[in-house]
Amino acid sequence: MIDDLWYKNAVIYCLSVETFMDANGDGVGDFQGLTRRLDYLHGLGVSAVWLMPFQKSPQRDDGYDVSDYYAIDPRYGTLGDFVEFTHGAKQRGLRVLIDLVVNHTSIDHPWFQEARRDPASKYRDWYVWSKKKPKNADEGMVFPGVQKTTWTYDELAKAYYFHRFYEHQPDLNTSNPEVQAEILKIMGFWIQLGVSGFRVDAVPFIIGTKGPDVTTPKEQFDMLRTFREFMQWRKGDSIVLAEANVLPETDMEYFGRDGDRMHMMFNFQVNQNLFYALASADTRPLVKAMKATKSRPATAQWGQFLRNHDELDLGRLEEEQRQAVFAAFGPEKHMQLYDRGIRRRLAPMLGGDQRRLELACSLQFTLPGTPVIRYGDEIGMGDDLDLPERNCARTPMQWSGEPQGGFTRSDAPVLPVISGGPWGYEHLNAAVQRRDPESLLNWTERIIRMRKEVPEVGWGDFAVITTRDPAVLVMRYDWRNNAVLFVHNLAGTPREVAFATGIDGEHGRLLVDLLGDDHLEVDETGRHRLVIEGFGYRWYRVGGLDYLLRRSEIDSRPDTRAGRSGG
Ligand code: GLC
Fold first, then answer.
1. For residue 169, is it within any domain?
2. Which InterPro entries match (predicted)?
3. Which of 171, 172, 201, 241 has the most ligand 1 atoms within 8 A of CB, as the residue to mutate?
4. 426 is catalytic
5. Structural domain includes residue 408
């Protein structure tokens, strides 16, 4: 049962085939290159990889504009290469999730071309049309500042079509049963080729009602159950990880009260408050967000992330909080995007300070849920703010100090490799970090390993333990009579905290440090007292009777020292 729900205690690694590894030297990453890097991913210890869209596409939105759901963009290889890759992943016990982008297609998709050309075609009703320009045509844009409208006139169709995103991404009429059946067919196809589920793009928009008269879209939640049911019929352990930036009140509707809808959702609420906590060293709003998103069905799971391939969306914070995050991590206009977010990568936001990067990652890994990490963050990659919009944080993986960071033999990579300066591949790369035991890469490998050995976080219930200091967050998780406890100091200066674990008796007296030797016993007041360095973090197992026993054994061995020196 526990192992069946693999996503409850897993680490997911997100990457783009296009910018990960190029095997054939044409400057574009491909499945053969990715397949060669499977041992790297396996060594890092991740449980699953999530691939961003790789289907055929004119690439006007980095593949989130699909023109054929059943084909691979030829620049990345063939379906044969894809199956070699899923097979290789399986051999190493790695699962594969892929993006499912079905809120919209590309305008180049033959369905749309057919729909606009022929009013009698069955595809006409696969999209959303209006003879007249709808009143709210200038509202609801997802990319404000770049996208002008949500309804665009098509000369051939002589009608307006609806697009929640860019105008080259016409929305599918997802209420149409034929469209729904096609979505299932797409899922079935990729499941058959070896994937264990989907990161479903833009879920609230997929299930929302669409049309010229719709002012407030209504979510058709049944659709989510249909997706899940179908997937589980085809492959029992496959999952859906939903991109749904919704309010905590609606979370349960997405998970399904009986746990019969989405298996996983990204926790956007926690993500934004986490960045506020990092910016202000005030963890109270983060705690509030954690509590607001606490309830979920036993089989459901949160995906906890720091940065993803999009901008860091701060839209749900209060104005003052948002300004504090901007001031700390994206003060200049060109670092910001769509009036609501920051487009930088994690490491530059945190000034490349390894202590702070470890703190952020440790916090992410100990939040209730399953961590989803992004390629390059394990080595602290930077961004290229000269690239437009979100592309700045999508540059090729920096493997080594060879030309183009070892990503490609071509001198014209699909996106420029970051070169020179503090983030350049010349010294910031996986090969260099491999050789250094204290590097971020080796640290990440160790923390992933430890995180997988602490299933309490994925499966258990959390409680926030009060300290007097809002900069220090103490959390305890309980599961199956085991408890673990985490301390994070978000301030840059040392703090002294005292707290009670809430676990009585002999068992609660000792906290065993899981990452070092800083074990902690209760003091005479029955509390644990800790001086924790700036940006410090501790992972403890509560109790650790093994440790107590071992220690008394060692203490009572009179000849220990003699034995060592005397041989
Ligand atoms: C999601 C993706 C984003 C894409 C958009 C349109 O928000 O994360 O990258 O542009 O959907 O498909």
1. no
2. GH, GH13_cat_dom, Glyco_hydro_b, O16G_dom_2, SupH-like_C
3. 201
4. no
5. yes
Q: Could you tell me if residue 1 is inside a domain?
A: no
27: left (phi over 0), alpha (psi -120 to 50) or beta: left
320 is catalytic: no
What's the mean per-residue pLDDT of the chain?
A: 95
Take atom 6 of ligand 1 and give the residue whose Cα is closest. 64
Q: Domain count for the chain, please give it.
A: 3
203 shares a domain with 245: yes
Q: Catalytic: which of 18, 22, 62, 201? A: 201
461 and 345 in one domain? no
Q: Is residue 538 part of a domain?
A: yes
pLDDT tens digits, 451-487: 999 999 999 999 999 999 999 999 999 999 899 999 9
Residue 413 CA to residue 19 CA, distance in Å, equals 9
SS (H, E, C) 50-110: EECCCEECCCCCCCCCCCEEEEECHHHCCHHHHHHHHHHHHHCCCEEEEEECCCECCCCCH
Does 41 lie in the same domain as 83? yes
* Separation between Cα atoms, residue 204 and residue 271, nearest integer Å: 18
Query: 20 C-alpha to center of ligand 1: Å?
Result: 19
Q: What is the pLDDT of residues 163-220, one digit of tens each?
A: 999 999 999 999 999 999 999 999 999 999 999 999 999 999 999 999 999 999 999 9
Cβ of residue 61 lying under 6 Å from some atom of ligand 1: yes
Cα-to-centroid distance, 509 and ligand 1 (Å): 49
> Does residue 478 line the site of ligand 1, with CB under 6 A?
no
| Domain assignment of residue 138, given as a range | 110-162
Asked whether residue 202 falls in the same domain as residue 338, the answer is yes
Protein residue whose Cα sits closest to atom 12 of ligand 1: 64
Which ligand 1 atom lies nearest to the CA of residue 165?
Answer: 6
Q: What is the side-by-side strand order in the sheet with 341-342?
A: 312-313, 341-342, 336-337
- Whether the CB of 50 sits within 6 Å of ligand 1: no
CA-based torsion, 441, 443, 449, 452: positive or negative: negative
pTM of the shown model: 0.95
Q: Are residues 273 and 324 in the same domain?
A: yes
For residues 243 and 304, state if they share a domain. yes
- Assess whether 546 and 406 both reside in one domain: no
Domain shared by 41 and 136, yes or no: no
